């Protein structure tokens, strides 16, 4: 089981979706310039028990369309059941990771995937020169262009 901060509703992390974000603690990527360094501490936040997670999904069932995990891929035994439960309730799923690759058994439970560590000199997804990639896995497309504002 991993720890999570209290989830938040967001409109920008997944284009076209209203998302419920779970920030998972214990990130070991350690991107220079990270805007969420508190997530590096695995003891930060509260345990995301199955009961607690299910209660959040039920609470937001009529309000959000996508469940997003910021991290958690380092504990596939905890992440995969969360993704599977969300999909069984007809939510789309997304993972934001600083890694370049994610295990196939995790990807099998995702609709969207953001990869790549944050590199300040290249910028995030809204930067045309970003090293980060945002995938629509169902359409098999990289959709970074949806984040870039003219």
TrEMBL record:
<dbReference type="Pfam" id="PF13353">
    <property type="entry name" value="Fer4_12"/>
</dbReference>
<dbReference type="InterPro" id="IPR013785">
    <property type="entry name" value="Aldolase_TIM"/>
</dbReference>
<dbReference type="InterPro" id="IPR058240">
    <property type="entry name" value="rSAM_sf"/>
</dbReference>
<protein>
    <submittedName>
        <fullName>Anaerobic ribonucleoside-triphosphate reductase activating protein</fullName>
    </submittedName>
</protein>
<dbReference type="InterPro" id="IPR014191">
    <property type="entry name" value="Anaer_RNR_activator"/>
</dbReference>
């Amino acid at each position: 089981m991993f720890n999570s901060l209290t989830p938040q509703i967001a409109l920008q992390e997944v284009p076209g979706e209203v998302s419920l974000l779970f920030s998972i603690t214990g990130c070991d990527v350690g991107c220079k310039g990270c805007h969420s360094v508190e997530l590096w501490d695995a003891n930060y936040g509260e345990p995301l028990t199955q009961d607690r997670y299910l209660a959040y999904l039920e609470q937001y069932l009529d309000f959000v369309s996508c469940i997003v995990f910021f991290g958690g891929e380092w504990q596939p035994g905890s992440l995969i059941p969360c993704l599977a439960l969300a999909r069984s309730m007809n939510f789309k799923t997304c993972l934001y990771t600083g890694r370049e690759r994610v295990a196939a058994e995790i990807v099998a439970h995702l609709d969207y995937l953001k990869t790549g560590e944050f590199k300040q000199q290249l910028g995030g997804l809204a930067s045309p020169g970003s090293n980060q990639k945002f995938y629509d896995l169902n359409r098999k497309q990289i959709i970074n262009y949806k984040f870039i504002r003219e």
